[in-house]
């Protein structure tokens, strides 16, 4: 059985390296993970004023994320944190009283063109996700920081750095073991 994963693309760039990584993972782990990218580009800026009449594309986004066994966050770093568009999407996920991702198995990958590979963004993301209205069952450890990503992905969108690919393979295996332990919790 493949695990149905919705991958929230934290970048709004049409040439996003983080999207390319997700597309690479979709192909490489096809037998184990059924990955679908979820885009956040068109989401309205969150406001409590909109909560009485939530925009249709926000509802669609939340339903799409909910319709999954697990969630993957693909995170670039903007100014030592997560991009504003991703924070906006997460703010929507946290509201409405439906606890869209609570207890849902989740894991994080991230890359940047700098050497630290989005480490600061991911530290912030883990903190944000620990809010009780979000609180997915987040894979501990397994911190995927892909630095200098522009040198590790070729024209065809393939991850060509062997060490990074081997590490990603291991993280996916660790996630699957974690998923199998946690899926019972996420189904209640
Ligand atoms: C507004 C902005 C801020 C950025 N800030 C950082 C940063 O703080 N640290 C970093 O390593 N890279 C930073 N970068 C470079 C990004 O890592 C790089 O653009 C990366 O490709 C973004 O991911 P994406 O290709 O998936 O969109 C920044 C880029 C932009 C556009």
TrEMBL record:
**Source organism lineage?**
Bacteria, Bacillati, Bacillota, Bacilli, Bacillales
The entry sums up its family as follows:
Belongs to the azoreductase type 2 family.
Segments forming domain NADPH-dependent FMN reductase-like? 4-149
Quote the protein name from its UniProt record: FMN reductase
Output the Gene3D superfamilies linked to this UniProt entry: 3.40.50.360
Pfam families the UniProt entry points to: FMN_red
The source's superkingdom equals Bacteria
For this protein, the parts annotated as crossing the membrane are: none
């Amino acid at each position: 059985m493949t695990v149905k994963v919705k991958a929230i693309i934290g970048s709004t760039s049409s040439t996003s390296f983080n999207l390319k990584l997700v597309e690479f993972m979709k192909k490489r782990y096809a037998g184990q993970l059924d990955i679908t990218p979820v885009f956040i580009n068109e989401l309205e800026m969150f406001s409590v004023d909109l909560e009485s009449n939530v925009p249709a594309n926000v509802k669609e986004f939340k339903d799409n994320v909910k319709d999954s066994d697990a969630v993957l966050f693909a995170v670039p770093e903007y100014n030592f944190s997560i991009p504003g568009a991703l924070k906006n999407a997460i703010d929507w996920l946290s509201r409405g009283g439906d606890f869209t991702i609570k207890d849902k198995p989740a894991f994080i990958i991230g890359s940047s063109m700098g050497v630290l590979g989005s480490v600061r963004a991911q530290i912030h993301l883990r903190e944000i996700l620990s809010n009780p209205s979000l609180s997915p069952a987040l894979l501990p450890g397994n911190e995927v920081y892909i630095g200098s990503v522009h040198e590790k992905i070729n024209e065809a969108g393939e991850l060509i750095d062997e060490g990074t690919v081997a590490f990603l393979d291991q993280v996916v295996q660790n996630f699957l073991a974690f998923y199998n332990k946690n899926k019972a919790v996420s189904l209640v």
